# Entry
Amino acid sequence: DLTQNDIRKTIIEDLQRNTAKFTGEHRQDVIKWLKTIEIKFDTAEIPTAKKFYLIPQLLDKEALD
# Structure
């Protein structure tokens, strides 16, 4: 349905723009970061396969190695 697709698109754009990227730095809490991302994914009803596509876009620095 068009409305759900619009909501999903908006949440994905928000994730990419406003979510702190996970860098893998010492003080960054990976569990807290993943829980935050999962809540946003669930709200947007993003399928698991799509999550695997989106997560790398939210990584930076050592987390990409």
Remarks:
- The mean pLDDT is 86.
- Residues 2-18 form the longest helix (17 residues).
